[in-house]
Design brief:
The chain is of the alpha/beta class and 308 residues long. The protein has a single domain, classed as Aldolase class I (TIM Barrel, Alpha-Beta Barrel), CATH 3.20.20.70. Helices cover 45% and strands 16% of the residues. The strands form 3 sheets. It has an 8-stranded parallel beta barrel with strand order 1-2-3-6-7-10-11-12, surrounded by 7 helices. The protein has a two-stranded antiparallel ribbon with strand order 4-5. Strands 8-9 form a two-stranded antiparallel ribbon. It is globular.
């Protein structure tokens, strides 16, 4: 799957992943009203509004980006109905030939980790038949429990030719409380990065590993170090836009070949119409605002890479 991701990045000239992290206050009133008129102000109505919102955005951006990253928590908050909307979103994105990164941040051990891996990336046996559960292409994984929590995911990735993005240095302000702690004079995130590189050697594609890392755009100097530690791992970079990351902060996440990183923006794209620079589109044309935000992000990153 890493080969498809690289191919799509080259085709679109956009190392961008759009985070499909819908909140009800992002969804325009006309979509909510229509969903509630059909299903009432219920969890089912909320899930329908989310699905219709996602679908319109996807329809306007799928040809300009290589990948999407739905954050499962934004769907889980609406219970089973929300998870149905998550699955419909995943399936629709795959119909549009987008790479789907399931932002699930799972971290457990043994059979529990294996079950998570099967549910999101693999296939589960039911009698004599096999079924894919959520069927994303990549998943995010928390490595805090060590190899016991990661290896079951790697095993499924080897079988299914899918991939992982393992949390190494996250973009949130308090990440340093643990991730920056020194061990034998080195920050923990560097040791995690070395482990990701070692795991990645087991799952190599043609140029890059199926095992990637998450490193926040808000910490560009740390990204520079981690790029050297993990030369064959793709880096998923959150924190662009709404969290303060800019194109100029991203250059060190990429290798000299212009590859090696994919940058995430969530509300900066899906709720672009709420920003002053895209307000001209209005609520009715929220998805056109999202497309414009994608184009601006692509240009920002391209300019930064060309000027390094």
């Amino acid at each position: 799957m890493i080969q498809k991701l690289i191919r799509k990045i080259k085709e679109t000239n956009a190392p961008i992943v759009v985070g499909l992290d819908p909140m009800m206050n992002y969804i325009p009133e006309h979509i909510q009203k229509k969903a509630f008129s059909e299903f009432g102000e219920t969890l089912e109505g909320a899930a329908e509004a989310i699905w219709q919102y996602n679908k319109e955005i996807i329809d306007h951006i799928y040809d300009r980006i290589p990948a999407v990253k739905p954050q499962i928590a934004m769907y889980e908050q609406f219970g089973i109905e929300g998870l149905k909307a998550f699955k419909k979103t995943v399936d629709y994105c795959k119909e549009k030939d987008l790479v789907v990164i399931g932002d699930i941040k799972r971290g457990d051990i043994g059979s529990t980790s294996a079950a998570y891996a099967v549910g999101h990336l693999g296939k589960v046996q039911v009698g004599s038949k096999w079924y894919a559960g959520f069927d994303e292409d990549f998943a995010t994984v928390n490595p805090y429990l060590g190899s016991d929590g990661v290896k079951p995911f790697i095993d499924v990735c080897k079988t299914e030719k899918k991939g992982l993005f393992i949390l190494v240095k996250t973009s949130n302000p308090s990440s340093g409380e643990f991730q920056d702690q020194l061990i034998d004079g080195r920050p923990l995130y560097e040791l995690v990065g070395e482990k990701v590189a070692a795991w990645g050697e087991e799952c190599m594609g043609e140029e890059y590993s199926y095992i990637g890392a998450v490193v926040g755009a808000t910490y560009p100097e740390m990204g520079k170090v981690l790029r050297k530690i993990m030369p064959k791992s793709y880096i998923l970079v959150p924190g662009y836009g709404a969290q303060g990351g800019k194109g100029k902060d991203l250059v060190h996440f990429f290798n000299e070949d212009g590859l090696g990183a994919i940058v995430n923006s969530s509300r900066g794209i899906i709720a672009a119409y709420k920003q002053e620079q895209y307000a001209k589109f209005g609520e009715e044309h929220f998805a056109e605002a999202s497309r414009a935000a994608v184009e601006d992000m692509r240009k920002d990153i391209e300019q930064a890479l060309n000027s390094r």
